[in-house]
Hints:
The chain is mainly β. It has eight helices and 54 strands. The strands form ten sheets. It has a 22-stranded antiparallel barrel. Strands 1-6-7-4-5 form a five-stranded mixed beta sheet. It has a four-stranded antiparallel beta sheet with strand order 16-17-20-21, with no helix packed on it. Pfam families: Plug (PF07715), TonB_dep_Rec_b-barrel (PF00593).
Amino acid sequence: xxxxxxxxxxxxxxxxxxxxGLSAAxxxxxxxxxxxxxxxxxATKKQPxxxxxxxxxxxxxxxxxxxxxxxxxxxDTVSETISADDLGALPDVSMADALTRLPxxxxxxxxxxxxxxxxxxxxxxxxxxxxNGREQVSTSGSRSIEFDQYPSELISSAxxxxxxxxxxxxxxxxxxxxxxxxxPLRNAEQHTFMVNARGMFNDRADEVPDGKEMxxxxxxxxxxxxxxxxxxxxxxxxxxxxxxxxxxxxGLAYNANKDVxxxxxxxxxxxxxxxxEIQHKGGEEVRNGxxxxxxxxxxxxxxxxxxxFISKFDSKAFARGYRVKLGGASAAVGNPVLNGNSVIGGxxxxxxxxxxxxxxxxxxxxxxxxxxxxxxxxxxxxxxxFNLNFDVSHSSAESDFRNGLLWSxxxxxxxxxxxxxxxxxxxxxxxxxxxxxxxxxxxxxxxSDINRVMVSKYGIYPFENKDELNAVRLDGSYKLDMPVLASxxxxxxxxxxEYANDRxxxxxxxxxxxxxxxxxxRLTQDMVKVIDFKGDFSYFPSYLAIDLDKALAAWFPxxxxxxxxxxxxxxxxxxxxxxxxxGPQTGWSMLQSGKVFEDVLSAYLMANIDTDVFNIPLxxxxxxxxxxxxxxxxxxxxxKGDPKLGAQNITDDAGLINGQYAPSILGETYRDYLPQLNxxxxxxxxxxxxxxxxxxxSRPPINRLASDTSTSISDDGIISGSSSNNPYxxxxxxxxxxxxxxxxxxxxxGAFVAALFYKDIKSFISTYTTPxxxxxxxxxxxxxxxxxxxxxxxxxxKNGDYTTAVNNDKGGYIRGAxxxxxxxxxxxxxxxxxxxxxxxxxxxxxxxxxxTNLGGDSIEISLPGLSENVFTxxxxxxxxxxxxxLSARFRDPFVSEQVAVNEQIVNYDGETVLDFQTSYQVTDxxxxxFQVNNLTDEPTKSxxxxxxxxxxxxxxxxxxxxxxxxxx
Length: 968
């Protein structure tokens, strides 16, 4: 059973039953020990001493809930909060899991665990995140924070601001998540030390070859006060080692079309899927987190604090099984089964012009991620009424994802000197919606035959991202002796951010056939073992799992060449048109690499309200935030080697030279004004009504600001171009309104909260094709004509299509309602007084629709991250030293990203995830616990717009934990 102390003054107020006449100033003082650090620095600094009021100690999970409710009650915005004691007591592997227990917040499970969070129906790209009030960059390669990078053991509190105020850093249309590490001088005890150790077991690991069953978690933390409570030190360490296992079916996008039903006159061609994957996934994840904080108060009017946070998250994962390529429009299709205009079943036979085949995959992925955050904060009470706060910070993230792929194909006979690819391929399948499909292969017996399977290709495709932000901030507040305005605040902030994306590649062999130049590898018995599918997947054919290290050592006896950023294959020092014929075209690794620079200057002015309206106490704030953004991106523009247009000889990492491109810097500067208002009416001692209105913004994902434009000229002289990104993208903007009613029961029994919200989204980023685009007017190099290199015939050029990311003006509303209820049943007799419930329900709807054609015909799908209905609930019981609780998280179907060969936006089925925990406090210092995550082994399931067109079916298993805690 966890032990903690609420803020002294807050509990004194609670003990008095939240006495009538509680002023805004008192409420502000009450929140000094519980509000996030960024808020405290602007609040009233004077607090009563321990001798002036009674100290009331609240123990256990129920006390933690009350502490969170008090934090919510006295915040001056619409917000949700979690206390550290709450986090330490629940089975939260990371902050992603912890945050999903708050109203209106849901998560996207990756590998069975929460990583990205959604707030009020909006995906992680619309969520802004800070640590100790400082902007955080991400390892995701975008702006979306991967909250599984943050160990819950190292975070002392979390707040989700659903309505902003002018003093908060801009960036969250969905909301702002504020994480806070420990502040040792606010700790109730002189010295505290805690150790937490847990063992872990996954019950599906035995279904995955080489899957690991056991894992562990370990953490310790220390907080101490010295030198008459003028010096504070906090240290923390958290380690996670966990196996990652999954068995999965993944359907691929419908990217080909063909007439398969024989109706040509009045019926369009039918859409055909690229194929599907059936795989075992396994591996291990190791996360090491470090936290340190040092506070010094040499004088009552001055405080200096420095803190550091580091998290390293490394994962190694393999995927084994097979990837089925149906062969597109060139395949022979028999007995087609249609869902509308899309093929969901049939028999596909390889033809001389199709690529129909089964690839046996033995992929090896490694991901090395690290986030770092450092900051120094100085807080100075210049006078009784005037406060200054200065903050300087650094946030950085590095991600090195190495996607290693090993393809194997079926040979007619792998034992001969010159093996031949077996082109007699027939594949039958029938999708069963959200259930596993029926499949059949004429080569099924060969998948596990060492005399038939040969390694045909190896490729490694690293994604390396670096993101770094440095910021400086100065804030001031001045108390006013006025009847309406209690104080005003003013501040300025400047930040510089640099994002770098580096792509590289190494490829050898052929994934569609056998190469004469790069012969396939003959496997030996020591390299392979036969793998059978088990459980729900047991009817799928067996296959050969290949020891990657042994196979590559045999294929590359002199060592595997390392991936490089390169124009292609050839002789160093020559131009691309002199490359060896048939070499891979890897110039994308050069064109997709680059940097983005973002400088932001912001300033705000905000007034805090403290008055009465018709004898109803009114508090809140209003203000405006000015934001000036300068964004730039490096670019390589294809100028066809014209030196007058800046063409330069650019040497790649392999020494190859390309003189076709001109390096350049693209971008722009823009300014925004964001007005904001928060009002809180204290209707009674236990009831309050909140209203908020604001203009908010979220900048585009930082990787979408990169420049990756490519252009081409067809044989008939048509100029076309495309870019998935755009350095000129502007932010998402929205006007939003919130109203909420909060009723608090007695000081230790809970609360009821109901809220309505409305967001008017002004625009979204979408991919748009402009026909007859004027390339010359847009600054692209356009030659006078196209000359055939053989005949010399010249062709006049014409403008064609240009496809790129744009800010469209097709916005719309997102609106919804939230209800939250917490009740501790103190009125029940005897042992049942420890019974309680905490839950929330949110309903969200939107008129915003986005087109997709991944399932065939173009259809409209909802906004990514939006589930109409989201429910979270916890039923708990506490008696003496024993606790037990059952938690549930439910969300309706939603749209999000599925990762297969390529990233795909799909519909996810609704899901319910149950977790259970029980604990017993053996002594005041020592406790034991047992918990189960994903109690019902809830799978992840997705589909392409229609449930009959299967996307993902993925099972992760249950995670069991047994652990001990020791504190002193």
